[in-house]
Amino acid sequence: MAARPKTARGPDMMLERACPAPVCGVDEAGRGPWAGPVSAGAVILNPKKIPKGLDDSKKLNAKTREALEIEIKETALAWGVGFASVQEIAELNILHATGLAMRRAVESLAVTPAFALVDGNYRFPLPCEVKTVVGGDGKSKSIAAASILAKVARDRLMAEMDALYPGYGFAGHKGYRTPIHARALLELGPCEIHRLSWGPVKLALMGKDPLMAYDQALQGDLAFD
Asked: How would you write the pLDDT of the chain (225 residues) with one tens digit per residue?
């Protein structure tokens, strides 16, 4: 009899239990898009009222993320969301702007955390002790909850930006790489929320297809930051 395939385990609270309480999970959304801010979420879950279905926000559809956002905010001991603007991304670079958004999210918590579990491998300076967790949104429920808040908050903001900057399709692609976004960049040029130092945006300013930035054969010939 063939063995049954192992089912993938979702995030749990093992990491939280190994850290001094209260513990917040921290994650970001929007490091890679061509436009818009980077966002971060921070969540201190209530161990007695953990929403069911918490997982990496990228594995959930929009309707599920939005429902979980409401439940997280209703049941968590504390939650916060922070942003770093396009201007701050340009001034600091995307890595440090991400850290700024995370710090703002943590500092906005109504409960001061003793410890932060941060998705990834970079130890950002936060107002508490930090443990980095690679793939944390698939391992820690607190980080998964933070990823959901960060994603939903940023998606909502980009939908608002679609009304302010029509024609780019921000409500659909949220500033990420798509053929529709590339075509709009060529036809309309960048708007105020585009990241001007990004290779695809630079290409559009040169009158070239932004998607060329992903052509490995051309990258050595293009002076991108």
From this structure: 444 444 457 899 999 999 999 999 999 999 999 999 999 999 999 999 999 999 999 999 999 999 999 999 999 999 999 999 999 999 999 999 999 999 999 999 999 999 999 999 999 999 999 999 999 999 999 999 999 999 999 999 999 999 999 999 999 999 999 999 999 999 999 999 999 999 999 999 999 999 998 864 444 444 433
Q: How far apart are CA 126 and CA 116, in angstroms?
A: 8
Burial class (CB in 10 A: 0-12, 13-18, 19+), 144: buried
Distance between CA 30 and CA 161 in Å, rounded?
A: 14
Which DSSP helix (H) or strand (E) runs through 24?
strand 23-29
Our separate counts of H helices and E strands in the chain read 9, 5
> Which ranges of 33-140 does DSSP label H, i.e. alpha helix?
62-75, 86-92, 94-107
Are 57 and 147 contacting, i.e. CB atoms less than 8 angstroms apart?
A: yes
CB 131 within 8 A of CB 105: no
- Between the two ends of the chain, the Cα-to-Cα distance in Å is 56
Query: Residue 1: exposed, middle, or buried by beta-carbon count in 10 A (0-12, 13-18, 19+)?
Result: exposed
